[in-house]
């Protein structure tokens, strides 16, 4: 057994333990072990409760949420609703004010804390903690978009009779319009948390609703990402129990589309990594089941994106360097998962592939969150997922995953060809092997990126010294003999795989134009600059395989339709996938038939 295969098997075992083994262990142990916490009859004296809620641009849900809280069965004189409006720019405050008056008529106290500036959710939560910690026995934190069962507060009051309980939560139910993947995820999470509750050691609570004994509440750090998790785990740091009451129902009213859900996974991935660093002390064996559950559930969840990344890289390296059969098999399985997993079908096997595809994509997104966190991201005030601007949907995320894997495999597999090409260039003409040139990259509302594209040199040195910047043409005298072959087969583009790997380009996309031509083209061709709006330029693309190299403004004009056609395909995963493979096959055809210019 090679070192690579041994490490791969070890990582597979860790991944299987985290997703399947841990759940099985909990199921087996709960059959023989009595519950650590036991709910008793409701006490005579009910505790006072402060319902704490942060709101930022929640005009769609604020009225319904406040009416839901005002309808709870708990005695109205024993609970108060506190809403911290964190610099809302929509009608949230006005609607909350109107609902507040209606609640007062029913005897329900609702206090609005309106802030003019959005300082972030951590700041808002800490402000609510300062307001409520010394005034209530229990603090209940809930999201605006979640509705609660009318006896939720009664159930929590019952749970907190046990002095060992620090945190309590309920069963989270996603909206009916949510994707089947979200529903499967929360079904798994509810099962897992119910088993963990048997030991009084639920790891993580849904931010939609959880209650904390006021004496156990601690302020959270300024740039906390997963505030619900940090709040709950800080509360049980001294040994307090965290339980789930199956009779408390949390119904999520907000329905994320797949793109929004994927975006949320990125932030959750960063949050998992942050909380692993912040709460590493929970791994202390003295904490018993809390330490075991934290390691198996959240610690492994935090590092799982890195493990998944290695499960892609290791077999790829084994295939390229060692030509191993097992590496080829694993790469084939991964490719099959991401290909078949995008097909919509009621077939059980295809559904299984689809779930695996979704889970793996989520981990790739989480890895991006981890990397962004390490580079200082996630320090800005909170915003709603569906209000964020920019092209960041599931297609772009899958596309980036393909770019990383494809460019890495390409650099490794094509290394011999690239070395021979470098040698041929050196023999054929004087000058450097590589040629770099400034190009225009992805554009957004705020900026247009510039980067240096790398190619194998196909022209003589200082080809534009006398003529200035001009388009290449057929039978261009500046092109060397070797360069002519490189351009026909597109081998001169291979160094751009590095541009793809570092995120400046994509394998497939619009052609990256030179700034000196870009200004002319933008004046001559309407909406030319929109070709790369939210889209990275590519080594190959629909316009490139249909039209070849540009020789004039007219050539560029005829290409723009193809670029827009490709951009439109990205609005639908199925259409994009079909388009991507078609361009890939045409690119291969150009390389082997020498139809490039």
From TrEMBL:
Domain called Bacterial sugar transferase: residue spans: 399-592
Alphabetical keyword list: Membrane, Transmembrane, Transmembrane helix
Segments crossing the lipid bilayer: 6-25, 299-318, 348-366, 404-425
Entries under Pfam families matching the protein: Bac_transf, Glyco_tranf_2_3
InterPro entries the record matches: Bact_transf (IPR003362), Nucleotide-diphossugar_trans (IPR029044)
Gene3D superfamilies: Spore Coat Polysaccharide Biosynthesis Protein SpsA, Chain A
SUPFAM superfamilies attached to this UniProt entry: Nucleotide-diphospho-sugar transferases
Source taxon at top rank: Bacteria
Record flagged with keyword Transmembrane: yes
Family to which the UniProt record says this protein belongs: Belongs to the bacterial sugar transferase family.
PANTHER family (alphabetical): COLANIC BIOSYNTHESIS UDP-GLUCOSE LIPID CARRIER TRANSFERASE (PTHR30576), UNDECAPRENYL-PHOSPHATE N-ACETYLGALACTOSAMINYL 1-PHOSPHATE TRANSFERASE-RELATED (PTHR30576:SF0)
Name this polypeptide is given: Bacterial sugar transferase domain-containing protein
Organism (species): Pseudoalteromonas holothuriae
